[in-house]
C-alpha cells in the first residue's frame, strides 16, 4: 500500500469518475486504474464498480473512506511539520474557496505572503461553500474560504473566522425597467429571466429562499461569477451576486446596474474555516493572519 494509491482512491471517491480524477491528478487514466486495482488486490476488497456511466464506490470503499482521508491528512500534517522545522520556507497550502474570494481578497493575500515566503506553493480549488466545507472536514484543504449567512448556526467540525460582511445585490441590464429601482423584492422578479448559481453555492440558497413559492424563472445555471456578470452585460437576464464581487469599474462604465435586494435576503459573510481537530500549518496560519488583516482594512478599498 502506498500513499499515492490512497490519494488516487480519494480523488475517484470525490469525482465519481476515473477520467476526471486522472485529469485532476495529472496522470493517465490507465495508470490510475492500474494503481487502484493493485490497492484492491493488496487490501483484498473491491473498491469501485465500473460501469458505462462512470464508477460507483462499493460498501467497502465507503467504509474505508474516512480511514483513507485520515491517513492522507496525517501525511500532509507530517510534511507541513517537517516544513515548519525550516521556518516554513517551503511547503504547500491547499485551499478551497468560493469564486468571489478567488477574485477579491485571496490574490492580494497570497501576493503579500509570497513576498516573505516565495517558496510556498498554493493550490486553490474553486467550489461552492458546502463543497469547501466538505473538503476541509475531509482533510482535502488546509483552509477553506466560504460565504455564509450571518444568522446560520455554527458549522460542524470546523473553526470559523469571519472576515468580511457584505450585501447580496441584483445585477440588472442597464436598459431594464428595474435598473433604477431603489430596492428589489422577490415579487419584482416574477416573470424575469434569472441567472442563478448551481447547488452548493450560497447564492443558490438565497435564490431558493426567494423562490420558495416557485414563481421565479431560472434560465441559466453557472458556477462562475464572471459568467454571470457577462450574461447580465449581454442582456440575457438578471443575476443575484455578492456586492464584494462586483468591480467598481463595471458599474462606473455602465456595463450593468446594481440594485440592493430587500434587507432580509441580503446580509452575507465571507469566512475562513479550518478543521477543529487540527492546528493549521505555519504557512496556512500565516496566510490566515494576512486575510484577517486585509479584511479589517478593507473598508473603502476596491479589490
From TrEMBL:
The keyword Transcription applies. One of its GO terms (molecular function) is DNA binding. The keyword Methyltransferase does not apply. GO terms for cellular component: cytosol. This is LysR family transcriptional regulator. Keywords: DNA-binding, Transcription, Transcription regulation. The lineage of its organism: Bacteria, Bacillati, Actinomycetota, Actinomycetes, Micrococcales. Belongs to the LysR transcriptional regulatory family. Gene3D superfamilies: Periplasmic binding protein-like II, Winged helix-like DNA-binding domain superfamily/Winged helix DNA-binding domain.
Amino acid at each position: 500500500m502506498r500513499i499515492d494509491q490512497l490519494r488516487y482512491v480519494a480523488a475517484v471517491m470525490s469525482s465519481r469518475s476515473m477520467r476526471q480524477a486522472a485529469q485532476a491528478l495529472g496522470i493517465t487514466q490507465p495508470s490510475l486504474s492500474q494503481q487502484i486495482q493493485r490497492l484492491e488486490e493488496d487490501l483484498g476488497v473491491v473498491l469501485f464498480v465500473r460501469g458505462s456511466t462512470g464508477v460507483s464506490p462499493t460498501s467497502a470503499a465507503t467504509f474505508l473512506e474516512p480511514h483513507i482521508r485520515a491517513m492522507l491528512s496525517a501525511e500532509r500534517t507530517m510534511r507541513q511539520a517537517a516544513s515548519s522545522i525550516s521556518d516554513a520556507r517551503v511547503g504547500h497550502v491547499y485551499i478551497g474557496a468560493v469564486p468571489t474570494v478567488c477574485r477579491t481578497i485571496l490574490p492580494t493575500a497570497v501576493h503579500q505572503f509570497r513576498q516573505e515566503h516565495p517558496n510556498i506553493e498554493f493550490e486553490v480549488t474553486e467550489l461552492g461553500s458546502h463543497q469547501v466545507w466538505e473538503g476541509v472536514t475531509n482533510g482535502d484543504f488546509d483552509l477553506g474560504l466560504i460565504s455564509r449567512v450571518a444568522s446560520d448556526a455554527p458549522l460542524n467540525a470546523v473553526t470559523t473566522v469571519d472576515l468580511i460582511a457584505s450585501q447580496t445585490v441584483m445585477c440588472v441590464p442597464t436598459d431594464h425597467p428595474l435598473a433604477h429601482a431603489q430596492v428589489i423584492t422577490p415579487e419584482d422578479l416574477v416573470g424575469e429571466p434569472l441567472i442563478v448559481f448551481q447547488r452548493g453555492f450560497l447564492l443558490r440558497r438565497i435564490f431558493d429562499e426567494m423562490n420558495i413559492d416557485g414563481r421565479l424563472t431560472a434560465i441559466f445555471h453557472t458556477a462562475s461569477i464572471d459568467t454571470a456578470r457577462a450574461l447580465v452585460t449581454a442582456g440575457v437576464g438578471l443575476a443575484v451576486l455578492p456586492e464584494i464581487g462586483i468591480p467598481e469599474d463595471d458599474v462606473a462604465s455602465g456595463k450593468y446596474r446594481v440594485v440592493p435586494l430587500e434587507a432580509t435576503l441580503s446580509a452575507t459573510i465571507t469566512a475562513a474555516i479550518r478543521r477543529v481537530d487540527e492546528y493549521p500549518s505555519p504557512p496556512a496560519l500565516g496566510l490566515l493572519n494576512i486575510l484577517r488583516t486585509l479584511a479589517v482594512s478593507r473598508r473603502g478599498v476596491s479589490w
